[in-house]
Write a structure and sequence with these properties.
There is one protein chain. Helix content is 42%, strand content 11%. The chain is an alpha+beta fold. Strands 1, 2, 3, 4, 5 and 6 form a six-stranded antiparallel sheet that branches. Strands 10-11-9-12-13 form a five-stranded mixed sheet, covered by helices on one side. A five-stranded antiparallel sheet has the order 19-15-21-22-24, with no helix packed on it. Strand 4 (91-98) and strand 5 form a beta hairpin. The chain starts with 16 loop residues before the first strand and ends in a 19-residue tail after the last helix.
Amino acid sequence: MSGGGGGSSAPGRFADYFVICGLDTETGLEPDELSGENFEQTPLRRTFKSKVLARYPENVEWNPFDQDAVGMLCMPKGLAFKTQADSREPQFHSFIITREDGSRTFGFSLTFFEEVTSKQICSAMQTLYHMHNAEYDILHTPPTNDKESCSSTGDCNGTSVSKLQRFNSYDISRDTLYVSKCICLITPMSFMKACKKVLEQLHQAVTSPQPPPLPLESYIYNILYEVPLPPAGRSLKFSGVYGPIICQRPSTSELPLFDFPVKEVFELLGVENVVQLFTCALLEFQILLYSQHYQRLMTVAETITALMFPFQWQHVYVPILPASLLHFLDAPVPYLMGLHSNGLDDRSKLELPQEANLCFVDVDNHFIELPEDLPQFPNKLEFIQEISEILMAFGIPPEGNLHCSESASKMKSLRACDLVSDKRNGNIAGSPLNSYELLKENETIARLQALVKRTGVSLEKVREETSSKKDLKIQCDEEEFKIYQLNIQIREVFANRFTQMFADYEVFVIQPSQDKESWFTNREQMQNFDKASFLSDQPEPYLPFLSRFLETQMFASFIDNKIMCHDEDDKDPVLRVFDSRVDKIRLLNVRTPTLRTSMYQKCTTIDEAGKDVFLHTLYTCLIKTSLKINFLTISEKSIELRLAKIDHTAVHPHLLDMKIGQGKYELGFFPKLQSDVLSTGPASNKWTKRNAPAQWRRKDRQKQHTEHLRLDNDQREVKIAHLTCSFVCVCPFSPPIQKYIQEARNLGSTIRQPKLSNLSPSVIAQTNWKFVEGLLKECRNKTKRMLVEKMGREAVELGHGEVNITGVEENTLIASLCDLLERIWSHGLQVKQGKSALWSHLKLQLSLVQKNCHTLTIPSMSFSFSFFSRHIQNISEIKTDVGKARAWVRLSMEKKLLSRHLKQLLSDHELTKKLYKRYAFLRCDDEKEQFLYHLLSFNAVDYFCFTNVFTTILIPYHILIVPSKKLGGSMFTANPWICISGELGETGVLQIPRNILEMTFECQNLGKLTTVQIGHDNSGLYAKWLVEYVMVRNEITGHTYKFPCGRWLGKGMDDGSLERILVGELLTSHTEADERQCRTPPLQQSPSMIRRFVTISPNNKPKLNTGQIQEAIGEAVNGIVKHFHKPEKERGSLTLLLCGEGGLVSALEQVFQHGFKSPRLFKNVFIWDFLEKAQTYYETLEQNEMVPEENWQTRARNFCRFITAINNTPRNIGKDGKFQMLVCLGARDHLLHHWIALLADCPITAQMYEDIALIKDHTLVNSLIRVLQTLQEFNITLEASLVKGIDI
């Protein structure tokens, strides 16, 4: 946000205007009605209109002067008056003026007080005081004998304040009156520190007893016309009134210019609040800053927007909101505004829109009020820790300096060297590590140095350059340099977060097919970023934040800039810097392939940089390359060098051709400047020509030449990336270094030339061969890692991994695999077509299949390669080739067909030869076979990586209902319906046409299917339906679920149910003989008919003894306990453990069926009948007030309340369905063991159960109660389909 500014035609001046604002004695005192001040205040506390008294020059064509904006922002509260009794310290603040085209101009204002010499103004102030005192006597005289009411209402307090205000008056005979005045610089770029020094020295010149060396016109003329803007990457020194002023500008490869102290923001707010405010700004909430100090408002606003790099705030941005523009706060759009506080009103007295999306920041009081539903910034805790470590290294408490004086003193007592000594916390060192001293005794390094010397390269120069930097003399004070250091370190940490999160953003950008003008015209209807595919690659904890951030205007504008700037020369400077950083991250990832993970990756510290640079220098000197890696210290060292060696010194101020008598010095008064000498600059510009920046141009040419050579080396380095693939990131003492040093020795005598084209064919072949080996090794490690992660702790217990290797999100592992597949498909490619080599190959293969009319037989439960690929092509939510390729990989893994499909893709040898060079990985037969074999191991586990990631896509589902063949399903006359539920949602009720048993419908992805609710409306003559099972198939993934039923639906049949809840079983697919079968056990199925009701024939039900029933209860409860002790991502469906075969409902049914007395002939008796009778007994008992004790009374009431609620549900779920609902609710509310104890002592039990029944054996009942009590510690959440219609 900071730094940018002036128009394109600006000639490069440091400042465009010098402005003076203040009291116009000719117009007199004009009350500022728009400031909203209370006129009950004393005249000294009121505000009056200020005016622009003078500006030099009158106007410049590249930056037209906006008098209204400058007048309001130089003195936002208007004129202020004080007497000799008040503090009159000068106040500095900066501001921004945004023009209609979005460009910005920066203003820097110093407000001070001058004595009022106009007798007219003094008399007017005296008159205002007489009027104020008269009004006060009339309005504020308290009634007599009313002290009690005064004290009771609290008005006395206010009256005392008014009296104090009355005594704080102005008497023309004894008081000296002062009025505020402002001097201001308007500049195209935000050099805040330099402008502040210029203005302070000018003010010092008029308040110093001694006059300045030259008239003030000389210094103002110099800053307006003779001091140029420093070019990018250069520093500039120019003269103020009393001393030199230095400013420096970042190069085009560094973070943009930002000259505000980050330190002040963290001291005012603390790290936690800054990160929260930063998150609100990224998500484009309305943000209102509140402070008594204008400069604090500006500093906080500019800091937050600068930390957004590479993104830019796109909405209303008014860091200092003038009092006349308070209506802006009602704007229904995102804004970032600063509101001035008078120090008296608190938050409750502010009339602000109480919106849910408002972030209110009280800067002075260390307070932030967050909007509702604010997602957490990714890796927030680690991010805060990294920032805190940097702040503590500079003696700044992370909590901020307000309200933490004790902790602040402790923090400041910490020394940076103490922090550095703790290597584990990743603190930034106070001084670079002397790696040479640490490693000089290492024999391996010594031999490597000797080898380097034989190549003719001396390392002494490297040492000299490193040591010479310690002797640099910085040409600014130490405190200012520390501010520079802290600024760049904090900004690098923030920039590193976005570089890591958006390292692959470019491949998801949707490039328009039409020309720029057409695209820009239809921009609102166009999608510019493949959000679904990008989010599918992200770690799960990132998704709440990223899914909202991708919808912001700042992200859309960032991507638009990327699309509009195809050429490097056209790129926005911010985008160019960010892309260069991303490119280096990618280059580093190619050499050192790392796993995509949500693990926090810190910005490189100085310690690490020192070690890596040393090893890297040795290695790259050996192979004559020049690899550059962007460490945190690069920007910091660049600033240090610019401040140590000034690139240009501007012309010194000099005497001007002024009239005699002008430029007169008068102590305490800013003089009236001579406008004729300040209105125009030098015609020939002789002063600037004398020191024209030819030296800068020469340095620029030298720098470009150096960068050109470095670019060539980088390009060459990519060709032999396998040699340095892990070297630059290993610790000096880690074992892998020995291998790379040995490789360097083996190749040192061969690789001597700076260009790969001069290498021998044998070296090139060896290079490519090692790259192929590296890819295969990475594939082997990655597949093993993914299997270990998927199998979880069981794999660790079997010895297939270590405990600390697990815990990485499945999403990031699969994204990492997709990256590997892209690199494999890109290796040795003849001509790259599109951003995804894999998807290009798939499309070519698909087109050949279609062209040759080659059709494949599609098995009933499988998909062919071509049919599979077309599905991905037809998903409209996925826009880019990279996204389609990754969706294809995820879908293949979910279907256990990845190895088979890739094998089929590579079976066309003619196409492979046409696309790839001979040394390509895909043309190395042995390695290719091993690669496919490793991928085949994914068939051993179940992945739902497509279903769980692409949650918003529409998926067709096919339903098949299979009624009983024996009992005349064709006679069924009612209207059936079905509702399908999954982990991601449910369909709602779907009406099924009568006599139609098979249908296809489309809805948003339901995830893994869990339950099916099926029923009918009981209409017609034959409203009885015996359903054997229901099949539901996902037409994209091919997953088929079977929902067994085996029960009647109809009044008077079975348990009288008109609807049933069925639990699903995922069927395993029948693959071909060469494919391995999945060993993962199938999901549990719905309970069968045979155990659901007590029939007239005891032989029709399974006879379990008490031991078997106890074992079933134990296994059911143990399954639930295991479920909650697993990591959340490894848990299965809790519904299956409750309602599936062998679940808790099934086990408790066995308990209540054991010893149940045989019913009368032709009548089925259900468990629910027994429970209803028990309810009636306890309700009667309570009415007669015969409940034995209070605990039993509470249990009985709960039991009866649940039975009544279930009976009153509008659902026709039958008696067994009601029992299932009761068990689920009891498990959720931890009441099952109470109910078992209650029913065991109920007299109804003696009537309906045999003496041998388990429920009548107190020893077994007590054992059952103890087992059920183990469920109390778990928070059981029931699926909506299980408790639909119940509000209890």
